[in-house]
Amino acid sequence: MKFFIVLCTFTYSSISIAQNCTYTLTGYVIDLHDQETLTDAILSIEELGNTIKTNAKGKYTFDDLCNGATYTIRVSHPLCNTQTINVTINGDTERTINMEHHLEELGEISITGEAQKNGGKTAIESQVSNEAIQANSAGSLGDALNQLSGVSSLNTGNTVVKPVIQGLHSSRVILITEGTRLQDQEWGVEHAPNVDLNNAGSISVIKGAAGLQYGGDAVGGTIIVNPRRIPISDSLYGETLLTGVSNGRGGSVTTTLTKSYNSGWYGSIQGTIKRFGDFEAPDYILSNTGAFERNAAIRFGVNKYSYGVEASYSIYNNRLGILRSSHVGSAADLANAINSDRPLFIEDFTYDINPPRQEVKHQVARLNAYKSFDNIGKFSFQYDYQQNNRLEFDIRRDSEDVRPAIDLELSTHSATLDFDYTADNTIDAKIGLLARLQTNFPDPATGIRRLIPDYDRFDFGVYALASKTLEALTIEGGLRYDYNFIDAQKFYRTSFWEARGYDELFPELVVEDLGTQLLTNPEFTFHNISATAGVGYDFNDTYNITANYALSSRAPNPSELFSDGLHQSAARIELGDIRFDQETSNKISIALSRKSTQWSFTVAPFANYISDFILIEPTGSQQSLRGNFQVWEYRQTDARLLGVDIDNEFRVSEHISINNQLSVVKGQDTTLDLPLINIPPVNTTNRVTYTNKKWHNLKITAESYYAFRQNEFPDNNFEIFIVETDSNVLVDVSTPPEAYHLINLRGQLDFEVSNTSTLQVALAVTNLFDTSYRNYLNRQRFFADDLGRNVSLQLKINY
Amino acid sequence: MKTIKSMKTFMIALAAGIIAISCSSDDDNTPPEVINEEEVITTLRVQLTNTAGNVTLQSVDSDGEDGPNPPVITIVGDIMANTTYNGTVAFLNETESPAEDITEEVEEEDDEHQVFYTPAAGLNITTEYGNFDGDGNPLGTVFTLTTGDASDGNFTVTLRHEPTKPNTGLADAGGETDIEVTFAVTVQ
Predict the structure, then answer these.
(1) Domains, chain B, ranges and CATH?
(2) So what's the architecture of A2-99 in CATH?
C-alpha cells in the first residue's frame, strides 16, 4: 500500500511543481479494539504547532496543508496510548487513525458495562451489563438474560434455564461464546446453555438473524457472550465474588485474577464453584432440585497494535437434580401429578442430587490470532475444539444400576477466518469463512436405545456484511451461505420404520437388518441462504430509528429428524421425521429510540414470518404395557410471530430513576390458525432505583415483575383411562397458569478497603412476599410451584 | 510493498490452517453397536390356578413401550363364579432369548415395588396379597383371587416402582407405573 502512496505522491508532485498549501487532511480516530470512533481525541501537527480535537463523531480536519509535504501528527486521547504518525499530503487527504486503549478501560468502561455492538448497526440489540451479570453470579446465564425486554426463558425447574428470544428458543437461538458457536446439544428443551456466566465480561442479544457473521440460522436470535477485556499496562488485579442464598441453602464463589504487561502480554485465570441443596417453593421443598457446578477458565496471549494471539481453555462442569415428582412412568401418572395440588414426592431438605439428574461437562480449547494492516483492515483467525459430555440419569427399575440413561459425547472442531475492512470509517465491511466438523457419539453402554444417533456433520459457511454511514443515515446489508452435511447411523425399530412407511420411501438407507431393529445410514445435505438489510436514521441527537429485515434458514435439528420414542419427563411418545426440509424465517424489526439524560426509550415492534416452521403437536395415542401414551409428532407448518418490546427510562432526579419494560409476543400457526405453544405471556417489569454516589455509592432497587396469564394457547388436552375409577379423565396439559406478580429488592454499598481494593456488599430479596405461583414457561409447572422467597448476600472484592 | 508481502504470508498460513482442519476428519465408518433394550418388559402374564381349571391372562407388546404396535391381549380359560384361585404374576422381557424373568428382580427389590389388582365396580372379584416385603407391606407377585357371582368388567394389573409404602391403594401409592394392563374379563 505504501508503494501506491509513494507512487501517487511522485506523480502528483511532478505535476504541481509549485507548493500549494490549501489542502485538508481529514479522517476519524478509531478505537482499534471495537472500531468505535473516539470523541475528543487531541491531534497536533508538530511541524505547524496547531492542535485540534475530534468532534462528536470522532472526525478531525486540518486545513491549509501543503501538497506533497509530510507532517508528523501526534494523537492522544484520555483512554489511549499516545501515538505519533507521519502523513504525506496529496490533494485533500483522508486518513483514519487507529488508537489503542490503555489501563482506564478496566476501571471505567468494562465495569460500567457499555459493551460494544456485535450485530450490524441496524440490528435490534440489547445488552446485559457487567453489573447485572455479577448480580446474577449465583444464577445462570438464562437468569441474567431474563431481565432484558423481549428475552424470557423456558425453564425446567429453576436450574435449567433456556433463553427465549421474542418467543423462540433452543435450535433457533445461537449462543456465541469466546468467539465460537457453543455446540452443547442445544436442541433439547431441557438442556441449559453450558456456559459459566461469571466468565463473561458482557452479554449481547441480537433479536433476530441480523448477526450474520455468527450463523445464518438464528431464526430467534443470537446471544453473544463477550470475554472480559484486558488492558495493555503493567498490572495485576483480581476480583472475588461470594454469594450466599437462603433458598437452596447454598451459594457460589467466583474469582478472576489477571496479570498484564505494557508489552501487551497478559494472562488471566478464573474459577467458579456453586453448590445448592433442594430449593423451596413457599409451601414445600422441591425435592431433588439441588445443583453443583464447577468451572474454570484460563487465557493468555499478546495484544499489540497491529497483531495479537490468544490461547484459552475452559471447562464447565454441572450436576443438577431434576424435581423427583416430575418423573412419571405413564400418562396416568402424569394425570395424577397434574391433578394433585402438591408434588407427590416431598422429602426432607438435602444436598444430595439423586436420579433423575443431569451431569454435563463442556470443554473449549481455542487459539485465536489477528493481524491489522493499516488502511486495509484486520484479519482474524480462530480455531477451537469443543467437547460436550452429557449424562442424564433416570430412575431405573433396578436401583443398583447406576448407568446413565443418556450418554452423549459431542466433539466439534471449528475454524473461522474473518476480515474486517477498516480503511474507511464511513464503511463497515466484514467477510468471513467458517468450517466446522462435528461428531456425535451416543455411548451404547447405557443399555437404552439412543435418543439421538451417531452422526458426523460438516458445516461450511461464507458471509459478507457491509454498512455505510452517510451523515445521519446508515444503510447496511449482508449475505450468508451455509452448507450442512449430516451423515448419520441410526437404529430404527423395524415396526416403526414400517409404520412410518420409510420401508417404501427409503429402502436404500437400510444397511443391516437385525430382525427387530434396522441399522440405517441417512444422509442429509442442506443449502441455507440468509440475508439481512437495514436502514438507520438519526433525526437529531435525541431521536433515532432503525429498520432491519433478516432472512434466515435453519436445518432441522437431531431431535426433529430422529426422535422415535418415549420422552420420559413428558410421558409422551415423540416422533421426528427424516423428510423435513429447513425452515425459513422472514423477520422485520423496527426500533424507535429516544436518548437523553432525563428520558430515554426504545419501542421495538417486530414481525417474524416463518415458513416450514417445525413444531411438535399431539396426533393420537398409542397403547403399551404401561397404559396409553399420547403421541406427539413433529410437523412443518407456517407460523407468524408478532410483538413489541418497550424499554423506558426516566431520570426523576439526580438520585432517582424509574425504569419500565414491556414485552408482548403473539405466536400463531397460520396454516391451522391456532396459537403456538409456549409463547411467553405479556410481561412487564418496573424498577425504581435510588443511587447516592456520595454515600458509599449506595444503590437501592425495588423491582416489580408482573406476568399476565397466557390466554392464547393450543388445546393439547387428552383423555386417559384411570384404573381406580374405571373411567376416562381429561389431562389438562394446555391451560396456562394464572398471572402472577413478584417483588424483588436489592441494595448495595461500596467500601474502600485500601487504595487499590474495594469491597461491595449487596443484599437482595427475590419474591419478597413468598408468593406461590407457576410459570407457563416452566416445564415443571404441572408438578410443583415455582421458587419461594430467596434472600441473598453478596460480597465483591476488587483488588 | 512490505505490507502486501506480509499480508500474503499471513493469508497463506491461514489458508493452510483451515485446510488442515477441514481434512482432519477421521473417516472411520465402523457401524455403531446395536442396543437391545434391557429394561423393557414385553410380557405380563397372570396365572390363576384352581382344580376347576386354570386361567392365563396375558399381554404381549413385542416392540416395547414406545414401539407403534399395540400389545396383544389374550385370555385362555374361563374364570368361574364363586371360586378361589391361587394367582401369580410374571413380568418378562421376551426380546431376549431365553426370555428374561423380571419378576425375580421385582421380588428381590420388594420394598421398591408393589403390584395392584383393580377390579372395576360391578365385577365380582376380590384379591388378597399373598406375599410381602421385609417390612410386612404387600408386594403382590403372589395373590389369591376370589370370585362372586357371574359378572363382567375391567380387571387391571398395575406394577408401581417406588410407591409410598404402606398405602391404601393406587390413589395414594404414587411412584411410577411400570406396567398397567387392563383385561376385559367375564366371571362365568
Answers:
(1) 43-187 (2.60.40)
(2) Sandwich (2.60)
Please name the residues in contact with B92: beta carbons below 8 A apart, sequence gap of 6 or more.
B41, B42, B43, B44, B45, B99, B100, B101, B102, B103
Question: Would you state the cell numbers that stand for residue A529, as one nine-digit string?
Answer: 441462504
Sign of CA dihedral A166, A170, A172, A174: positive
Fold of A225-798: Maltoporin; Chain A (2.40.170)
Beta bridge partners of A517: A493
pLDDT for residue B7: 56
Which of A325, A328, A296 minimizes the C-alpha distance to A312?
A296
pLDDT tens-place string over residues A94-125: 888 877 655 433 333 322 223 345 666 788 88
A2:B3 CB<8 A: yes
| Residue from A487, A489, A486, A488 nearest A517 by CA | A489
Please name which of A366, A385, A415 lies closest in space to residue B17, comparing C-alpha atoms: A415
Q: Whole-number mean pLDDT of chain A?
A: 88
For residues A286 and A325, give the distance between their C-alpha atoms in angstroms, rounded to a whole number: 9
Question: How many whole angstroms from its chain centre is CA A314?
Answer: 17
Per-residue model confidence as pLDDT tens digits over A523-554: 999 999 999 999 999 999 899 999 999 999 99
Q: What is the rounded average pLDDT of the residues A238-254?
A: 95
Q: Report the alpha-carbon angle A325-A331-A336, nearest 5.
A: 50
Answer yes or no: do A573 and B66 touch at CB < 8 A: yes
Q: Which helix (H) or strand (E) holds A203?
A: strand A202-207
Query: Is A627's pLDDT higher than 90?
Result: no
Share of chain A above pLDDT 90, in %: 62
All structural domains of chain A with their residue ranges: 2-99, 104-224, 225-798
The three-point CA angle A94-A463-A124 to 5° equals 80
CA distance A440 to B29: 13
The verdict on B184 touching A (C-beta cutoff 8 Å) is no
User: Cell numbers 503493567 label which residue?
Assistant: A234
Cα gap A345→A773, rounded to integer Å: 19
Provide the pLDDT for residue A304: 81
Instruction: Report the 10 Å Cβ neighbour count for A605.
Output: 16
Residue scoring higher pLDDT (A121 or A196) = A196
What is the Cα–Cα distance from A57 to A38, expressed in whole angstroms?
A: 7
Selecting from 2.170.130.10, 3.10.50.40, 3.90.580.10, 3.30.565.10, what CATH number does the domain A104-224 have?
2.170.130.10
pLDDT the model gives residue A101: 58
Q: Per-residue pLDDT for A398 more than 50?
A: yes
Q: Which residue has the cell 431474563?
A: A146
- Lowest mean pLDDT segment, chosen from A60-69, A313-322, A342-351: A60-69
DSSP B143-159: EEEEE-SSEEEEEEEEE
Q: Is A546 helix (H, G, I), strand (E, B) or coil?
A: strand
Q: Do B17 and A626 touch (CB under 8 A)?
A: no
**pLDDT exceeds 50 at position A238:** yes
C-alpha A155/C-alpha A145 separation (Å) is 13
Cα(A630)–Cα(A572) distance, integer angstroms: 5
Residue A636 has pLDDT above 70, yes or no: yes
For residue B68, give the nearest of A495, A626, A726 by CB distance. Answer: A495
For residue A16, what pLDDT is reported?
A: 38
Beta bridge mates, A72: A86
Give B61 to chain A, closest Cα distance, Å.
Answer: 7
Contacting residues of B for A444, CB less than 8 Å apart: 32-35
